[in-house]
Amino acid sequence: MGSMTLSSIIRRFGVVIAWIVIIIVFTILRSSTFFTVSNFTTILSSQAPLGILSLALLIPLAAGDYDLSVASVLTLASMVTAILNVGHGVPIVWSVIIAIVVGGIVGLANALICIGFGIDPFIVTLGMGTFIDGVTLWISNSTPLSGISSGLTNIVVVFRAGDLSYEFYYFLVFAILIWYLFDYTPAGRRIQVVGKGREVARLSGLNVKRIRLLAFVAAGALSAVAGVVYLGTSGTADPSAGTSLLLPAFAAVFLGSTTIRPGRFNPWGTLVAVYFLTTGITGLSLLGVSSFVQQLFYGGALIISVALASLGDRSPLKKLQRRRRDAVQEMVSDHRLANDAQGGVNEDSGQQLAEPD
Amino acid sequence: MKTFAGMTALEDFSFSVYPGQIHGLIGQNGSGKSTFIKCLAGYHRPDTEWSLQVGSTSIQRPLRPGEVTNYGVSFVHQDLGLLPELSVLENLLLVQFANDHRSFLPWRKERNRFRQILEGFGLDIALEAPVASLAPVEAAQIAIVRAVTQIGLASKDAGDAHGVLVLDEATTFLDQAGRESMASLLRALKARGFGVIFVSHDLDEVLAICDFVTVLRDGREVHSSPVDQVTHAQLVSLITGTQDQVVVANPKRRHNHTTSAGGVGLRVGSLQGGQIRDVSFETQHGSITALTGIVGSGWEAVLPLLYGAARATSGVVEIGDRIVQANRMTPRRAIGLGMVYVPASRLSEAIVAELSLEENVTLPQLNRHVRNGFLRHAMLRATSKTLVEQFTVKTTSVAAPIGALSGGNQQKAVLGKWFAQAPSIILLAEPTQGVDVGARETIYEIIREAADRGATVIYASSDWAEVEALADMVVVFTDGKVGAVLSGADISVDTIATESYRGTPQSFKLEGGIEGLELTLAAGHSHSQGGMA
């Protein structure tokens, strides 16, 4: 951080500034409908499921792993909750808990396959996401399910504090928790090292496998929470709910990594990015632009944010690309190494000895 | 002449190789061998004028990368440039693929063509086999055959092309049987009139295979003669240049307690893994032990095995009364035993360049900075500032990314990160690699102080002058095994060199010997000369 020059302020708060700018622009263009309390409370509250999903995605990304299954877990969790509660009369609390456990199990499965077999998470979670989508369609007979307990809708959207639905505060609480984890716990610092220098982490005695595994499990469970909040918001479990959320979540996390703590996947950047993106879309739709603008906006934002980030040399995406490239090179050179100096590379086999620190 | 950052890498050097001749080029790391190869390949531009003559073609200007291939000069480097998952045939055709504009590949025709070529060289390697399944020597031979066919492509005369083949340590990791097989391939090349530039660390191999040998030291040619006019011992002293040795500035702190005073700090028993075979040695508390030898002899591979960074196949590591099976060692377990390891490749293994200096150096002691469930940033800042001062790391801020620091400061920070853990066993791989002279002295001081406090330091290095200045005991590796153990007054660049180059007994000899040279001096039409003035 060091001294705060103007350019470093712009760099750190670029997305915040852009958010303010588009608010001003839309206010000028549509002051009567855009710049209203109800519009802002809608924007802040209604995007909580996307926000929580983005935070879920943030955790494995910080540890250097893609998770493309988060949106599918969201859908599955909302469907599981609805089926248990509506279809089988399970109390809503238990339905929610079971759904979150299911999400965690999906994360665990991702982790075990990626780490156990040493496969690129990009491929594993892509397959897992599609698999989970199939499961969701199967258990729901491909039809939406409504009639969820009012207990859930109450604590998600109906109850409000200061004009904002509770769901906004859930998003805020998870952002704070992840902020605490990343910035104020040794585990958070270790996640950063695992994400940006996996070999350094291993040689520093970190249990790389355990950290990656926990990141995947946390992502699964938190995606399920996002699914529950989604269900509470809409009141209906839709078997295709998550499909439209995966890309926005990626866009928010990558755009977020260019701001607040540029070069790092960080929760406050993600939060700002979620609201920057949804404000833009809300404003454009108020201007009467068709709904396809969502895709244009999210897709464009993902590419632009990644391009912006790669202009700076501390881009987290570059690191991920480098890791994927290194993995390929490692495979190539392994064959050679097998015959010469180094012997097989020894992944931390996770013996539970005293912590190094 | 080629200059790098104040050091002349090559000066006034001329080199000739004739058809049917194998010309060995030897010298220590940094002697200018690779600079010469890179100038020839066009990856370095000579700073001053030079000339290259290949056959009747004479070139006075610096070459573009890869351009020299057009004149019939082809390279095989230590990294053979083969794709292990592809078949032998596909690998052989790779170069052709890049320039091939045919829309259809006549596989059967190509297979037959290469089968004939391989048979012509007396090689029995299946063209369909993936390269990954080949023995190391077969892979090297395929790379050589590919380089030869490349020369053929360039001269548009595939059948009987003449040219120069540069083997840049392509044979470093071969076992005895492999060397013999390689020697017979080289013999076949000679017979066909190829000139070969043979770069190697293995003097026995050079003496057995080459017709002519040139020794480089500090960028200058110090010797050039037919191999039968020089002995193994003479080559060793020519390589090291014992008469004008550069001495490390600080006076030596030699431990007097040779075996008893310190007690055993670490004992390694029958360590095996990779190229390491049955390595045993023990080191004393408070002493500095150096592992060294020629490049590829195994000293580089020991520390990763001890620390569990690479997996050993068998052996034991004893620290005090704790005995650990080497194949069950992991970095976590090693740290738990009081070990720390500073790897040689700093950028990929020792630092996370994007993270701050503070985040890097405080990584092993994060848990000590937690109060009431919160990581205390002020405490971390204070700890890292203390470390930075103690280990004289020059930086504007501990919050700056560590990658922005100079190599020397990065290395001091890495030492600080680990030495602050008060380790009992310190493993250092090439700790002064890529480090400027000033920082080097500080690093020597840091290492000595740690030893004086009673830590056991094991130090892998290819810099023999440094080893002489720093080590209380030297383990010299040859061919993956402990070749010699030196201590006390026996430690000198001279003795290390003698032991390093002792190598394995020669069990093969190339037939023909020097006569190839005479033959080709007369023929002399393909003549490559790199003269740099």
Number of helices of chain B: 17
- CATH top-level class of chain A: Mainly Alpha
Distance between the termini of chain A: 26 Å
CATH class of the largest domain in chain B: Alpha Beta
Largest interface: A-B, 46 and 65 residues
Would you mind describing this structure in some detail?
The complex is a heterodimer of chains A (357) and B (533). Chain A has 15 helices and four strands. Chain A has one domain: ABC transporter involved in vitamin B12 uptake, BtuC, CATH 1.10.3470. In chain A, 72% of the residues lie in helices and 2% in strands. Chain A is mainly alpha-helical and 357 residues long. Chain B has three domains: 2-244 and 513-532, Rossmann fold (3-Layer(aba) Sandwich); 248-338 and 423-509, Rossmann fold (3-Layer(aba) Sandwich); 353-422, no CATH class. In chain B, the strands form six sheets. Chain B has a six-stranded mixed sheet, sandwiched between helices. In chain B, strand 8 (164-168), helix 5 and strand 9 (195-199) form a beta-alpha-beta unit. The longest helix of chain B has 20 residues, at 136-155.
Secondary-structure topology with pairs:
The complex is a heterodimer of chains A (357) and B (533).
Chain A lengths: L5 H24 L7 H10 L1 H15 L7 H18 L4 H26 L3 H20 L4 E2 L3 H9 L1 E2 L2 E2 H19 L1 H11 L1 H6 L4 H27 L1 E2 L8 H11 L10 H20 L6 H19 L4 H22 L20
Antiparallel strand pairs in A: 1-4, 2-3
Helix pairs in contact in A: 1-13, 3-8, 3-11, 3-12, 3-13, 4-5, 4-6, 4-11, 5-6, 5-11, 7-11, 8-9, 9-11, 12-13, 12-14, 13-14
Chain B lengths: L1 E3 L2 E4 L5 E2 L4 E5 L6 H9 L8 E5 L2 E3 L13 E5 L10 H12 L7 H14 L15 H20 L8 E5 L7 H16 L3 E5 L3 H7 L2 E6 L2 E7 L5 H9 L23 E10 L2 E9 L3 E6 L5 H9 L6 E6 L2 E4 L5 H6 L2 E4 L3 H5 L6 H5 L8 E2 L2 E2 L1 H14 L16 H13 L5 E5 L7 H16 L3 E5 L3 H7 L2 E6 L2 E7 L5 H8 L14 H9 L4 E5 L1
Parallel strand pairs in B: 4-9, 4-10, 7-8, 8-9, 14-21, 14-22, 17-20, 20-21
Antiparallel strand pairs in B: 1-2, 3-24, 5-6, 5-24, 10-11, 12-13, 12-15, 15-16, 18-19, 22-23
Helix pairs in contact in B: 2-4, 4-5, 7-16, 13-14
